[in-house]
Backbone:
């Protein structure tokens, strides 16, 4: 019997995960990727002998990644050399205080809390205990699809509900454990991983900082883009095909059913099942035909809430800086900075800045004595009235001043050999990210679980979704889960 054929639009982490599991399960998998490299937002950026990650730099829940390799008949350790980064990161407050949260050394962690935020050490232990209960109940709910209302009344979700704290904000939740505002920020800035404000993000997401504190943060040698490369290798070893520099122009549908894709070349590739990994909102405007859509027509998609965007600088420099692998420099008025990013949608004159100095851990990314510096600044998405062509050079100066004065990148301007900048407009225009919202649809309660676009796409038969725009949401482990959930629906049906 001929193998069932699955076509996947996009070789981002979601598409690659579904592709590697399905190719192992005997499906004839073909992936079409518009770029000339795999990985999407998790692809490498090459500048001569320097390699940067485009997007993700924090790998959490390494066990989820390992499980995806196992489901594909492989062992992650045969493809990837993954090292722990501990202390996890350096948090630098505007007044000069520095905090080095550690997953491995709990005594040191409590000592630091007691020194910097006296009287709060015991709150940390309560945080770990209580948020673990939330984690234990929530995680099983994120591993299954929510494609109808019955799933909202599942036993797992009913048991989880009293622990979810979805009705209060992440920041308010941290008030249960800590009385110091700066310490609360150290456990809530993770809302930015979802592109949200801690004052708005549901407290259910406190599990993100718990995951860091209990499971640590990891770095694969070669950068996080090495994961995408490894997944692509597995797909090809399992008999799947990946076509790079091949753009899908449109879903090929007949009578409301996806039968494959039209390529920009004019060719039609027929398939039994079609998976969309391209950014969901981008796909609804550019890949699906409006006449095939029922629930997710472009006008409704536009009306949804979106995450923030990011302003990026990738600097190839002629020296190695003695700063940690990950640093976050908080704005002087962090709450105002976050409100500017998420509510008033203006460019902050006092931004928070994240710096990755990956060569500290990984000498494969740059020639000896040189290094790669990756700088990320959360900024409003492109629905804001910001003229990036006019602002980008001025904003670059603000950011470089900040990393020089507060981040430890002394005289950085004198050491830049080459650089690349990505603005929200670039995310939108060059990376096909709708509204330049780098972390997809926002993760407010009204856009989660059954309310998020379903893994089995509800509008078009035989069409499925993976990636940050579907359930469970943005962030690598959840995106890997989206790939697994969708692969399971295809091979085992809805459970
Ligand atoms: C700056 C930044 C930092 C981040 N940091 C982290 C982090 O530290 N940790 C973490 O866990 N997550 C992080 N994330 C979030 C998330 O993990 C990544 O964005 C992830 O790459 C998203 O995966 P995806 O599968 O949803 O889609 P994408 O990576 O966007 O992949 C979609 C693919 O579809 C392709 N495509 C689009 N249209 C077409 C078409 N018409 N034809 C063919 N192909 C098409 C695109 O080129 C792309 O390759 C970060 C994201 C960004 C942007």
Residues:
């Amino acid at each position: 019997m001929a193998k069932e054929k699955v076509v996947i639009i996009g070789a981002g982490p979601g598409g690659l995960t579904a592709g590697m599991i399905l190719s192992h399960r005997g499906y004839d998998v073909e992936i079409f990727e518009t770029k000339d490299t795999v990985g999407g937002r998790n692809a490498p950026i090459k500048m001569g002998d320097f390699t940067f990650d485009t997007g993700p730099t924090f790998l959490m829940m390494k066990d989820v990644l390992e499980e995806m390799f196992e489901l594909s008949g492989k062992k992650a350790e045969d493809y990837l050399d993954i090292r722990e980064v501990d202390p996890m990161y350096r948090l630098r407050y505007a007044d000069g205080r520095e905090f080095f949260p550690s997953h491995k050394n709990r005594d040191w962690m409590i000592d630091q809390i007691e020194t910097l935020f006296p009287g709060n050490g015991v709150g940390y232990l309560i945080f770990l205990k209580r948020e673990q209960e939330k984690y234990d109940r929530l995680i099983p709910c994120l591993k299954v699809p929510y494609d109808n209302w019955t799933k909202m009344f599942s036993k797992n979700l009913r048991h989880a509900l009293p622990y979810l704290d979805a009705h209060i904000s992440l920041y308010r939740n941290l008030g249960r454990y800590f009385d110091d505002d700066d310490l609360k920020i150290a456990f809530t800035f993770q809302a930015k991983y979802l592109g949200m404000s801690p004052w708005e993000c549901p407290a259910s997401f406190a599990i993100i900082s718990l995951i860091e504190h209990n499971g640590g943060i990891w770095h694969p040698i070669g950068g996080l883009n090495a994961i995408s490369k490894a997944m692509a290798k597995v797909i090809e070893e399992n008999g799947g095909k990946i076509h790079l520099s091949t753009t899908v122009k449109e879903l090929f549908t007949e009578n409301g059913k996806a039968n494959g894709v039209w390529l920009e070349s004019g060719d039609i590739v027929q398939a039994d099942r079609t998976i969309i990994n391209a950014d969901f909102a981008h796909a609804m405007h550019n890949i699906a035909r409006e006449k095939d859509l029922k629930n997710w027509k472009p006008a409704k998609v536009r009306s949804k809430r979106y995450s923030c965007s990011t302003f990026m600088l990738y600097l190839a420099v002629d020296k190695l800086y003695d700063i940690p692998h990950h640093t976050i420099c908080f704005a002087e008025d962090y709450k105002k900075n976050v409100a500017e990013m998420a509510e008033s949608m203006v460019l902050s004159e006092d931004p928070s800045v994240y710096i990755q100095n990956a060569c500290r851990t990984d000498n494969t990314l740059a020639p000896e004595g040189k290094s790669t510096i990756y700088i990320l600044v959360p900024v409003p998405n492109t629905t804001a009235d910001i003229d990036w062509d006019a602002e980008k050079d001025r904003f670059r100066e603000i950011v470089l001043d900040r990393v020089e004065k507060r981040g430890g990148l002394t005289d950085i301007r004198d050491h830049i050999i080459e650089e690349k900048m990505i603005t929200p407009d670039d995310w939108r225009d060059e990376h096909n990210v709708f509204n330049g919202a780098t972390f997809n649809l926002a993760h407010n309660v009204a856009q989660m679980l059954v309310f998020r676009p379903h893994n089995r796409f509800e509008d078009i038969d035989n069409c499925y979704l993976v990636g940050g725009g579907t359930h469970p949401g943005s962030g690598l482990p959840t995106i890997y889960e989206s790939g697994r959930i969708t692969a399971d629906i295809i091979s085992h049906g809805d459970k």
Observations:
- Residues 316 and 365 are 10 Å apart (CA to CA).
- The domain at 308-434 is CATH 3.30.519 (Guanine Nucleotide Dissociation Inhibitor; domain 2).
- The mean pLDDT is 95.
